[in-house]
Amino acid sequence: MDETETTPRRDHRTRRAALWATLVAVPVTVAVAGFTFAKLAPESPDATPSAPASPRAQSSAPVELPAPALAQRPAILCRALVSQLPDSVRDLRQRPVTAGPEQNAAYGDPALTVACGGTAPLVPPTDEVWTVNQVCWHPVQEADATVLTTVDRETPVRVRVPKTYEQPLQWVTPISDTIVSTVPSAKQVPSGCSG
What we know:
With 195 residues, the chain is of the alpha+beta class. It folds into two domains: 3-47; 72-182, Protein Transport Mog1p, Chain A (3-Layer(aba) Sandwich), CATH 3.40.1000. It has helices at 3-40, 72-84, 168-171, 173-182, and strands spanning 88-89, 92-95, 104-107, 112-116, 130-132, 135-141, 145-150, 157-162. Strands 1-2-3-4-8-7-6-5 form an eight-stranded antiparallel beta sheet. α2 packs across α4 (173-182). The model is unreliable at 28-55 (pLDDT under 50).
């Protein structure tokens, strides 16, 4: 066979293979370049993911709360409770209090307050009680707040939820969790509280 006959055929095959390689390589290269550019390109302000909701704007001034003297056992329980309370309740950050930081806490503006100790409320049999995360609460409506007091704990805890914060029971959920772990159950509880 003549060498000159095979050379054009080889050239034709080589060109065809090169053409196919180019047809495959170019789109792959463009795709890789596009992905790389997308990963390395700075994000536009419109493309940034939304930041988590920032906490409500609030005052950092101390919240005025009374601090009645407590007997030894309630004082120990209240100190344990307050030391374990969360730094925030939902989106309300904790604030300082004017008195009794070992028995009082406050969150947000207007202030949601937590007061530990004092006299247990008398709960008439017809009054409603609500259980939230294993803590039984007795609600009392005031003009500008709902006051929830534990009625199933050795030492009562009062949480005053301003009307600004709707659905008051949702606000005591993280506080209830802390109460369960720090304040023992009372020996006697109202009939509406689950044991």
